[in-house]
Design goal:
Arc Repressor Mutant, subunit A, Rossmann fold, globular, alpha/beta, 11 helices, 54% helix
């Protein structure tokens, strides 16, 4: 059973999300929260695997809550709920440790699939809009780009190739096909790359790849 906490300041939105998620027999909504402070309390109390996190909320917002959750022991996987006019907030949330995002009008089937995907330890990087957001907002931060390019020197050539493909949103299976490696070997390279670059997850690796100009955004 996948335990989920829903965080949104609108009661109607929380109710709708709960209804959609609990249509799946393998998902249990164990808690709700109206703001970032309540979100942290709910996670500590219920220990969910996944948190659906709104950004703009009273008191503590979703970005603050995401950073705080990332510092907890065994933190949950955070999916940001957003609209297109909150793109910059989404990028900040990804940097804070979120593993992806969904638009608030995401169809129920896709919402359920997203929860299963992140609960299994994967990132929601497949949608082209995600890659576009990462590319757009990393380009604005040149000091970060300079730092990222310096860190590339710690990677082997193969690790750089894997990092570039992570930046394009490819899965381990797709990376293996491109580089003629088994999924297990890809997983090893991904783990080593994350460790060397001191990154928490694949989403942060994708952002790093754009920061370092390994990906052209096309």
């Amino acid at each position: 059973m996948i335990r989920v906490v829903i965080v949104d300041d609108e009661e109607l939105m929380r109710a709708g999300l709960r209804t959609m998620l609990e249509a799946d027999e393998e998902i249990s909504v164990v808690g709700e929260a109206r703001d970032g402070d309540e979100a942290v309390e709910a996670v500590r109390r219920h220990r969910p695997a996944v948190v659906l996190m709104d950004i703009r909320m009273p008191r503590a917002d979703g970005l603050t809550a995401t950073r705080t959750l990332g510092r907890l022991p065994n933190p949950p996987q955070v999916i940001v709920l957003t609209t297109f006019d909150l793109d910059e907030y989404v990028h900040a949330a990804l940097r804070a440790g979120a593993v992806g995002f969904l638009l608030k009008d995401t169809p129920p089937r896709e919402l359920i699939r997203a929860v299963h995907v992140v609960a299994a330890g994967h990132a929601m990087l497949a949608p082209a809009v995600t890659r576009r957001l990462i590319a757009t907002f990393t380009e604005r931060d040149s000091p970060v780009g300079d730092q990222a390019r310096r860190k590339l020197g710690t990677l082997t050539n193969r690790e750089r190739e894997v990092l570039e493909l992570l930046g394009r949103g490819l899965s381990n299976s797709d990376i293996g096909q491109r580089l003629y490696m088994s999924p297990a070997t890809v997983k090893t390279h991904v783990s080593r790359t994350l460790a060397k670059l001191e990154l928490a997850n694949r989403v942060q690796a994708a952002i790093f790849a754009h920061d370092a100009n390994l990906v052209d955004g096309h």
